[in-house]
Amino acid sequence: MIPEKETNIEKADSQQTKYGSFALFDIAHFINRILKNWYWFVIMFIIGYTISWVYTKYYAQNVYASSLSLSVSNNTASYFTPNQSINFIWGQGGNQDGIYLKKMLLSRSHNEFLVEELGLYVNYSTKGAIKSTYLDKDDVPVLVEVDTKHLQQMEYPITLIPKGRNQFEVVLPDDGHSTNLYSYETEGFTTVEPYDKPERRIITTGEWFTTPNLRFRLIKNPVTPKLDLQNVIVKFSTVNKAVNDIVSTISIDFDKEINTIMIITKKGYNLNGTVSFLNKSVSQLQKKRQADKLIVDKNTDAYLQENLDKIRKKLDSSAYVLNYMKSTEKLYDIKDRDEKSLNSIKELESKKADIESKIISLNQIKQMLASQNFDKMISTTAAGFQDGMFTATVSELKELYLKRREMALIYKPNSEPMVEINKLISDAQANSNGVLRGYYSRYLEEIGKIKGKVIEMNSDLNNYPEKERKYLDAEREYNMVEATYNSLLSRQNETQLKIIGNQSDISVIDAAKNIGQSPIGPNVKAVKAGIIGGLLILPILFILIGVVLDAKIRNIKELINATRIPLLGVIGNNTNETMLTVLDQPKSSVSEAFRGIRANMRFLSGSDAGSKVILVTSSIGGEGKTYVSINLASVLGLSDKKTILLGMDLRKPKIFGDFRIDNKYGISNYLTGEVEMSKIINKTRIPNLDVATSGPIPPNPSELLMSEKNIRFIQDLKNLYDFIIIDSPPVGLVADSYELMKYSDTNIYVARHEYTEKYMLKMITEKYHNGETGNLGLVYNDYNTKLGYGYGYGYGYGYGYGYGYFDEDKNYKEPLLIRIRNKVREIFNKK
């Protein structure tokens, strides 16, 4: 059944805009293209699998990880080991000392020390036939000692080849020697004068190898390596790069149940290297932690001892004065003495003396801080308090001052980095001074209160005689000095106990160890999936781009929905050598499709009688309008209908060749008056089919086709023939066919599968729905069924393949997907 023609000409504008508009993306065509190009996916899969296998086998470097767990106790604090009272400075609660240690382990200063101490700026590897492998120091026969006072070239591969008897050949690259060399002393680069390429030579262990861009010597490894290496490749890196590489591979976590237990993990290409670094890193941290605490405690002990010596002299002097008054003035026994008031005053003045000694310690701390003399810094316990914020701030200031000294060698004073670090130092100074001012205010407030109480109690002592008051003053002075001495002595004893009992508050629970851990990377499955998936996406992308950019008609259903023009039939691919398919292959599916078109034309006009003049056109040449015209005329002629085929495509005549007719005289000759009508009408081997060829190409084809003589010519033929088939020019190139349509009864528009551009149908679609052309039907030509996909629009075509109905069925082989579908159906039907 033909889709019903639109009869309502007055459509809404929104509906009209849809006519001739095709979808940007055809999902059905996209899927068909993917299935059609299945072999590319197989090829890409094989290539991807091969690449991933070669990569993981010969090029991918295994990544290993080793871990170390340690416990952090919080028994002491110093400017370099803040305690639990600094919750607010790190913005967290709980294990603050552990968080501080985490920052220390990841700090530049700690890792820079390890890099320089362990020579981690020297990297070892070996290269086989294909793959390079990173090595640890324990894996190489000799270690490289770098002369840090000599300029060195970074990332410059130095190959050491064993030659026996502690000799190694030093092989350098043929090119790549640079004039930009690095100094390990200043940690900066220097440009030198150009020099000749360094030559390779053989050196013995202990012998210095010197070139303009290198200076090092080989030292026999005290550890006997387990590997027998054919070569060792050495590269030097900057201290900064070595530190950054190390920090980026370290992760630190805390145990979920006991947050004072730290778990440190390091990743690397060599398992022994990660184990060695972790153990040495924590060992160094323990030593530094212990040393830092000793520095502050020893400074505090010395400071307290110095003050004790001074107070001791004052105490001796006060004791001498008091004893003198007792012996000479006999004032050791005062009558009616108010012991309660005197004891209260003694207690208050002892507190005052203790606070004053703390203020003196505060002054000392403030002075050391202002002078940046951190090596002489004393503990805040000497001033009678422990403050985590102040401790952390002092530690931060120390690091900032050191960093500023380093930056001053590189940056100018007014540069942005220097301005930024000066701001950080200023903020840290403000924080530390703010803490000290807070304790100053607290101590001064307490002293003020004590003084007020003492003055109040002294009023009761004004009644004593002058000599007795002098004795009481001397006794109070002695008590104050003694209280200060005892307070300092007590603080010194606490400090000395810390020094005696000083030990690291970091204890290793499980040291890092090589127990044959498997590599943690690369993720072989993810690599394979990524490579294979990436290659499989490529053909999909190419197909997708092709589908999006493709403007050709490939979908019958979309063609009908977009144009809303009745579909008369679908013509398959012509396998005949000529265009006379209906005559040469009458039992073919294509011939049957033309018979279906003949039958469907009745629905356009309502009866056979109303379809005497049938015009066939298309958008451009090559879409098969002549082919359709010839075979449609053949079908009508074979059905005992007197039919004539007119070749009115005067610009590109074709019909005469297939019918073997001489094109010397044709329609163009008749329209110009050269010959009579009978001269141009040719008989064919079909009794009821005549053909009038176009004749020689005229200079004015449009004028001839639109002439009154041509119109009379068609009218005269209608009296002689049942059907007149006009092979007209393409409407996408010239407008001749639109004029001829005024005199035709039925119009057939040919669109060719995967050839006709979608935009070419817009004009004919608009004219059809605007009522400018009537009785119009579509013929879809050259549709290929090899893929085995139908669209549900056969109309006399496509329903016989594989069933013995047509001639082609004897050589027909069902497509693979169809065979699979049928097999599945067969299996399910059995069940």
UniProtKB/TrEMBL annotation:
What reaction gets catalysed by this protein?
Answer: L-tyrosyl-[protein] + ATP = O-phospho-L-tyrosyl-[protein] + ADP + H(+)
UniProt entry keywords in alphabetical sequence: ATP-binding, Kinase, Membrane, Nucleotide-binding, Transferase, Transmembrane, Transmembrane helix, Tyrosine-protein kinase
Mention any Pfam family matching this sequence. AAA_31
Taking every annotated instance into account, which residue ranges of this chain make up the domain AAA? 612-735
Q: Which Gene3D superfamilies does this entry report, sorted A to Z?
A: P-loop containing nucleotide triphosphate hydrolases
- InterPro entries per UniProt: AAA_dom, Bact_polysacc_biosynth/exp, P-loop_NTPase, Wzc-like_C
Name the source's superkingdom: Bacteria
EC annotation?
2.7.10.2
Task: Tell me where the transmembrane regions lie.
Answer: 38-56, 529-549
| Protein's UniProt keywords contain Chloroplast | no
The family this protein is said to belong to: Belongs to the CpsD/CapB family.
Can you say what this protein is called?
non-specific protein-tyrosine kinase
Per the UniProt record, the source organism is Chryseobacterium profundimaris
